[in-house]
Design a protein that fits this description.
The protein has about 280 residues and is α/β, with parallel strands linked by helices. It is built from six helices and eight strands, in the order H-H-E-E-H-E-E-H-E-E-H-H-E-E. The chain has a domain at about 100-240: Collagenase (Catalytic Domain) (3-Layer(aba) Sandwich), CATH 3.40.390. Helix 3 (about 130-140) crosses helix 6. It comes from Streptosporangium nondiastaticum.
Length: about 280
Amino acid sequence: GASRDTGSPKSGGGVARTATGVAAAVVTVVLAVVVAGQVEDGADTQAQARPADVERAKADAASRSDSRPTPNGGAAQQLTYEQKMDRKYPLDEKAKGSGAFDTVGGHEAAPGRGEVLRYRVDVEKGLPLDGELFATAVHRTLNDDRSWGHGGTRTFERVSSGHADFVITLATPGTTGVWCAKSGLDTTQDNVSCDSAATDRVMINAYRWAQGARTYGDKMHAYRQMLINHEVGHRLGHDHETCGKEGALAPVMMQQTKFLTTDGITCKPNAWPYP
């Protein structure tokens, strides 16, 4: 806390000075005892609370700009889900990670009707991207009626433990390449994603998640939805498709990260199986 300023008492006779001196001495002793007790208790409290304090500090650091005044006098606004999904994030196109994964915690119930498919979300350790945002995007995308559960045919439940039908995995290009190669797929040429069908992992290339593709430009939200729908589409048994009519919406199973034109016919970007 702030240091306390104590002024000198006015002179008013020997007795008064003596009494004042005694009183001051008593106050000093009491304060010393109280302060000593506070320091000792504070040290114990600090030692006991340190892990929580560290987590709180992380949270404070992450949210510090959300409510504090900005240099121009305004208040910074917390980004919405849509704003976060519209943004690009820095990531090297040749990034390689540890190859180890963290599971995004929590549970999100299947909101729809039909067959329930359970999936888990893993994010490569050390990846400088928001795993919670990724998990939210996966769940919202797959349970949109324009996605693979269209018309109540199926619905998707996110789990973090127990049985999962497949694992949607956000990983660096290097690790994506390793897992896709397990299924005989080469993602390194075009830095793309894959459904590693010989394993339980649907691999989302973190570089594409962060930076998008030329075919979608700045439409990052739509591109990310397409990535999820395309790769999960493979897991559900759908093969690649091509553009069939000039100016039509591209099939979601078209390789839209690479191109929007096949045999001279150009389609428009499309993120959904049932747009």
